Amino acid sequence: MNEATARAQLQSMTAWDAEPTLTAAEVQRLLDMHRMVDVYGVLADAYASWAASSPYIVGQLVVPTVRNGHFYNVTVSDGASGPTEPVWPLTSGGAVVLDGVTYTEAGSAPWSGRWALNMAAAEGWRWKAGKCAGRFSFSSEVNSFQRRQIHEMCLQMAAQYDKGGLSTIQVDAGSIFDPVIGNVNGAP
């Protein structure tokens, strides 16, 4: 599984854009916190994936968005990457210059990408619970929700992911929350 797929699954599992929302940076942080040993037994590394229009400083280490077994050192930078990902060199010490940033191949990064998505989702729901603890009372034409109900629902979702699975959960006001979660075990 690549990082973009894992991020999309985690976004779905946490209903990240539904109130209380998680930011894209928070979703990425959850994903980064829950990297695990890949199917080949290679330990997760801490290299950040390349990102478009992002600040890069000399000495920063990055990997391609679709990992190729290598990591790259930013050896020259005018401040930020451009909109297009470079074509990454695979030779030792090979360099590519794009949009004022030079990326130099710096070694092997064989981790193939695997994440503990259930654990990440549980933590994401706890973060959402924390966000709603001090707010949220609203009404619709049919139901009225109090922040306590939203807080409890977020904690129930976290508990379900802590158990390693998710079933439909009924919330106090009778509404049903049943996200589409797909493959949640992080297996490739």
Count of strand segments: 9
Task: Give the number of helices.
Answer: 4
Helical content (DSSP H or I, runs of 4+): 25-40%
Strand content: 15-25%
The low-confidence parts are 167-188
Order of SSEs, N→C?
Answer: HHEEEEEHEEHEE
For the CA atoms, what is the radius of gyration? 20 Å
| End-to-end distance | 5 Å
Strand order across the biggest sheet? 1-2-3-5-4
Largest sheet: 5 strands, mixed
As an assembly, this protein is: single chain
Structural class: alpha+beta
In total, the number of domains comes to: 2
The averaged pLDDT comes out at 82
Describe the global form. elongated
Can you describe what's shown?
The chain is of the alpha+beta class and 188 residues long. The chain folds into 2 domains: 3-40 and 114-177, no CATH class; 48-108, no CATH class. The chain has 4 helices and 9 strands; from the N terminus they run ααβββββαββαββ. It has helices spanning 3-14, 24-33, 117-132, 147-162; strands at 48-49, 61-63, 70-77, 95-98, 101-108, 138-139, 144-145, 169-170, 176-177. The strands form 3 sheets. A 5-stranded mixed β-sheet has the order 1-2-3-5-4, with no helix packed on it. A two-stranded antiparallel ribbon has the order 6-7. Strands 8-9 form a two-stranded antiparallel ribbon. Helix 1 (3-14) packs across helix 3, helix 2 packs across helix 3 and helix 3 (117-132) runs antiparallel to helix 4 (147-162). The longest helix is centred in the middle third of the chain and has 16 residues, at 117-132. The model is unreliable at 167-188 (pLDDT under 50).
